[in-house]
Design a protein that fits this description.
InterPro entries: ABC_transp_permease, BCAA_transport_permease. The protein has about 290 residues and is mainly alpha-helical. It is about 75% helix and about 0% strand. It has one domain: Orthogonal Bundle (ABC transporter involved in vitamin B12 uptake, BtuC), CATH 1.10.3470.
C-alpha cells in the first residue's frame, strides 16, 4: 500500500512537471500550429540560466524569474525571425527548429559542461510533509508545491484563453487569421506574445523540474518527447487536454517503473498508439 500511494504521488507530480512543459508547447504547437521542436532546448536553457542566477545570488525565486525571462526573450526572437517568415510551412519549421535545438544543445554543453546540477529549494518548501491518514508516511514538500503550482497555472491559462479578450483573439486568429486582421487586431503582435509566453513556460518548467529532479545534457530530448506525447494524447490546443494527458503519461511512467521496470517505457507508447488509433484528435481535442 505504501509503495502504491508513493508511486501515485510520484506519478501525479511527474505529470504536473510534464504539464508545465507541455502547456507552453500546446500554446505554440497545438494552438498556433507552429512546429517548434526546439521547445525541449528552451526547457534545458531555462534550467541552466535559472541555476546560474540562483547560484550567484542564492535566491531561488530570482532563478525562476531568470529562467522564464531568458527563454521568453529567445522565444520572441524565434517568432519574429523564423516562424513569422515560415507561416504554414510545417516541414521548414520542423527542420529549422531541429537545427536550432542541436546548436543550442551543443552551446549549453560547451558552456555548462556535462555535469549534473540541481537547485536547492527555498526552506519554506524544503523538507517533507506527513501524509494524512497514513502511519507516519512522509513525502517531499517541494513535490506537493509543484503539484499545486501546476494546478494554479493550468487554471490561469484556461481562464486566460477562454475568459479574456486577448485569449479570444488568440483562438480567433488561429481559426481565421485574415478575418481577425480585418477587424483591426494586430495578429502578429498577439501571436508574438503567445509564443513568448509559451517559451517562457518552458524555461519556468526547466527551473522547477531541475529543482525536483536534476539538470543534465539530454533532458531537452526527454521533455520534448514527453511534450509531444502529452499534446497528442490530450488534444491539440487544449489546456485541459494537456493536463489530462500529462497526468496519464506521468502515472503510466511511474507505475511502469515501480511494477514492471523492464517494460516501463513501453506503456507510454502504448497509450500514444491507442490514442492515435481510437481518438486521433486527442482526448479533449476538436475534430478537424
Amino acid at each position: 500500500m505504501k509503495q502504491f500511494i508513493l508511486t501515485t504521488l510520484n506519478g501525479l507530480t511527474l505529470g504536473a512537471l510534464y504539464f508545465l512543459v507541455a502547456s507552453g508547447f500546446t500554446l505554440v504547437f497545438g494552438l498556433m500550429r507552429n512546429v517548434n521542436l526546439a521547445h525541449g532546448a528552451l526547457y534545458l536553457l531555462g534550467a541552466y540560466v535559472g541555476w546560474t542566477v540562483a547560484d550567484k545570488v542564492e535566491y531561488w525565486l530570482l532563478g525562476v524569474a531568470a529562467g522564464f525571462a531568458a527563454t521568453a526573450v529567445l522565444g520572441l526572437g524565434l517568432q519574429l525571425l523564423i516562424f513569422r517568415r515560415m507561416e504554414g510551412q510545417d516541414l521548414r519549421q520542423t527542420m529549422v527548429t531541429i537545427g536550432i535545438s542541436i546548436v543550442l544543445a551543443d552551446l549549453m554543453l560547451w558552456f555548462w559542461g556535462g555535469e549534473t546540477y540541481q537547485f536547492t529549494p527555498p526552506e519554506v518548501i524544503d523538507g517533507s510533509l506527513l501524509l494524512p491518514f497514513t502511519p507516519n508516511w512522509r513525502y517531499p514538500s517541494y513535490r506537493i508545491a509543484l503539484l499545486v503550482a501546476a494546478a494554479a497555472i493550468g487554471v490561469g491559462l484556461w481562464l486566460f484563453l477562454n475568459r479574456t479578450k486577448v485569449g479570444m483573439m488568440i483562438r480567433a486568429g488561429v481559426d481565421d487569421r485574415a478575418m481577425l486582421a480585418a477587424s483591426g487586431v494586430n495578429v502578429q503582435r498577439v501571436f508574438a506574445i503567445t509564443f513568448m509566453v509559451g517559451a517562457g513556460l518552458a524555461g519556468f518548467a526547466g527551473v522547477v523540474g531541475g529543482t525536483a529532479l536534476s539538470i543534465a545534457p539530454g533532458e531537452d530530448v526527454r521533455y520534448l518527447l514527453a511534450s509531444l506525447i502529452v499534446v497528442i494524447v490530450g488534444g491539440l490546443g487544449s489546456i485541459t487536454g494537456a493536463a489530462v494527458g500529462a497526468l496519464i503519461i506521468g502515472l503510466a511512467e511511474q507505475y511502469g517503473l515501480a511494477y514492471s521496470p523492464t517494460y516501463g517505457a513501453v506503456y507510454t507508447f502504448l497509450i500514444l498508439v491507442a490514442a492515435l488509433a481510437l481518438r486521433p484528435q486527442g482526448l479533449m481535442g476538436r475534430r478537424a
